[in-house]
Design brief:
23 strands; 2 domains; 18 helices; binds 2-acetamido-2-deoxy-beta-D-glucopyranose; 593 residues; binds zinc ion
Length: 593
């Protein structure tokens, strides 16, 4: 058996010899940044994977990003390359150990490959399913729209190759006749190929309420009180299980709802001494959590930027050894970790074929249609709002002011115009390079309309701060707060990328990067334009999606301050007209060339 020899694990063995007893006491894992002072020598190369008896590769929240990130070298691999990687990794690296391939859902909404078809995911689902998953399940994005749910059920759950492997312990599908069936298997019990390890796998979706009428989600804590679960855990008792694998669309760090922690408490009660490996999803971060000294959880990022790796060794011993690595989704990483010396050696027939299908699909969906060039990169979270390289700054300063009201709508124009958007209208960074139809699907696929209200300046100027004081109701995918502090890496020779901190320390990313700083982004942002003849009136323009929030803000503010003798409702809101955010951005980019 191959020993786990990464620096972090090594630290466990040497800690009692060289370090203070307080550090030694945190076995079986230690925060690695405190261990070896020679670490900086390692910074220029890859951090190698630590193969154990049982190894996992994990994808999650791919959201249709199967065709690489064309303007980001760090993430230049395609789905077919992942297919090749898994084959080569199995052949060249895993050897006589076991490997399980797992996905935890959210396969739509985010990229043209999935979103440019009707229904959404029609062709991308087939491409996704080319990977031979051992365990897979669904996320909340498979449950918003009926068509998506039906497609997922017939194309993936009922797919011959995934029989027994598609697991959903707390979601049901609603048949045409209204009857309920499990959305896949309730569990999977199987033996691994090489060591014959006995695995019981369960999969839970977080407490998601907005499912459509073709599905039903039962909160996990209710589900595990049901009879089937009691019977299952009686059938498979501690003696029958070597590793309990709990994978699902649920965050592994959840300080608010603590769903996973409550689930773990219940499972630990039933299986006091079983090794448990969790795989999580949904919050789009790289994360690894130690729930106790025999239970760990891995979450593997988003958007095909990450392949998560985890391993467990000494499984039958009192303290199993674990490791994790977040692999950057690019060809250099894939070649390195699969011990391939060249692309030729790396690519498999199947991988090549999958990449060809992606290429054809991109062409067929016109995703390659180029509108212009983005002159430099604009970021959602990695630059502060005050920076010209922040995408919201770019939109409010450059793009939104180009909005023109409908030509037959020129009555009583105020001297000041405010245009407000919710930051959730944007869902990805805008990178320097070609601006294509695909870019639009990633940045802002939605088509919004504009409404406006004419307001006194004193009232209009307060709406932004009011809405930004509210809970983040309108933003999508705000990245989780970093809980543990790792040193900020500012080495200019390194490329920008993830420098993740997790329960095993600061060395989880396979490639040492320069840290990306993360800034908090408010709910809404606005542009303000004024002419000289200030008349104290404002045309307050906003994307119609946020109208209920704007009205609430106006009435709440006015109630406190009595600025006007009026209660605002939908009748005050008029159509402004003009191009959507998406089209304004396209026109702006075209105008630059
Ligand atoms: C997309 O899927 C549809 C329906 O299965 C099929 O007719 C079409 O050929 C597919 N397109 C590509 C490029 O695979
Ligand atoms: C792609 O573009 C061509 C030519 O402009 C057009 O005929 C076709 O309908 C487009 N296809 C899609 C899926 O938009
Ligand atoms: Zn997601
Ligand atoms: Zn999700």
């Amino acid at each position: 058996m191959v020993r786990l020899l990464n620096i972090e694990m090594l630290a466990v063995y040497i800690a009692p010899l060289f370090l203070s007893s307080t550090l030694a006491a945190v076995l079986p894992f230690s925060p690695d940044q405190n261990i070896l002072s020679t670490e900086s020598h390692e910074e220029s190369s890859f951090r190698d994977l630590q193969i154990g008896q049982l190894n996992f590769l994990h994808t999650t929240d791919t959201h249709g990003w199967l065709g690489s990130h064309s303007n980001q070298d760090n993430y230049n691999a395609k789905w077919g390359d992942l297919v090749s990687f898994v084959e080569r990794f199995r052949e060249n690296v895993v050897g006589e150990n076991d490997l399980l391939l797992i996905d935890t859902g959210d396969k739509h909404d985010g990229n043209g490959l999935s979103d440019a078809t009707v229904p959404n995911g029609l062709n991308s689902t087939q491409i996704f399913n080319e990977l031979d998953y051992d365990l897979l399940t669904l996320g909340n994005h498979e449950l918003y729209v009926e068509d998506n749910t039906v497609l997922e059920y017939y194309e993936t759950v009922l797919n011959e190759k995934f029989q027994g492997k598609y697991v959903s312990s707390n979601v049901e599908f609603v048949n045409d006749d209204g009857s309920l069936v499990p959305f896949g298997s309730k569990y999977r019990y199987f033996k691994t190929e090489k060591y014959g390890l006995r695995i019981l796998a369960l999969s839970f979706l977080f407490d998601f309420r907005r499912f459509n009428k073709r599905a039903q989600v039962t909160p996990v804590l209710q589900e595990i009180e049901k009879k089937w679960f009691q019977e299952l855990t009686e059938t498979y008792s501690m003696e029958d299980i070597d590793v309990l694998v709990v994978f699902g669309h649920m965050p592994i760090s959840d300080t608010e709802n603590r769903e996973i922690n409550q689930l773990h408490a219940k499972l630990r009660h039933i299986y006091p001494n079983t090794v448990i490996q969790y795989f999580g999803a949904h919050t789009h971060i790289r994360d690894f959590v130690a729930l106790d000294n025999k239970a760990y959880a891995l979450q593997s990022g988003r958007f095909c930027e990450t392949v998560g790796f985890a391993s467990i060794d000494d499984i039958t011993k009192e303290s199993p050894l674990v490791s994790r690595t977040y692999i950057d989704f690019n060809l250099n990483s894939f070649l390195h970790h699969s011990h391939s010396n060249s692309i030729k050696e790396f690519e498999t027939d199947r991988g090549t074929e999958v990449n060809e299908r992606i290429h054809e699909l991109r062409k067929e969906l016109n995703l390659t249609t180029k509108f212009g060039n983005v002159p430099s990169s604009f970021y959602m979270y990695n630059k502060p709002l005050s920076s010209p390289h922040n995408i919201y700054n770019f939109l409010t300063k450059r793009v939104l002011p180009t909005l023109k009201r409908d030509s037959d709508n020129t009555a009583d124009v105020a001297s000041t115009r405010i245009i407000m958007i919710n930051t959730g209208a944007i869902r990805y960074d805008l990178y320097e390079g070609p601006f294509t139809s695909d870019t639009e699907y990633t940045i802002s696929p939605f088509s919004n309309t504009w409404n406006y209200i004419q307001l006194p300046m004193a009232l209009a100027m307060q709406v932004e701060s009011y809405l930004n004081g509210m809970e983040p109701i309108m933003t999508l995918n705000l990245p989780g707060e970093q809980r543990r502090q790792c040193p900020l890496i500012e080495d200019k020779t390194l490329s920008r990328g993830y420098t993740t901190s997790d329960d095993l320390g600061c060395k989880g990313d396979d490639t040492p990067h320069r840290s990306e700083r993360q800034y908090r982004i408010p709910n809404v942002v606005q542009s303000i334009e004024s002419t000289n003849n200030a008349d104290e009136l404002v045309d307050f323009v906003y994307c119609s999606f946020i109208q209920p929030f704007v009205l609430e803000a106006l009435n709440d503010l006015n109630e406190d301050q009595n600025i006007v003798d009026h209660t605002f409702d939908d009748k005050d809101c008029k159509i402004y007209g003009g191009l959507s955010i998406k089209d304004l951005l396209r026109e702006y980019i075209i105008s630059l060339n």
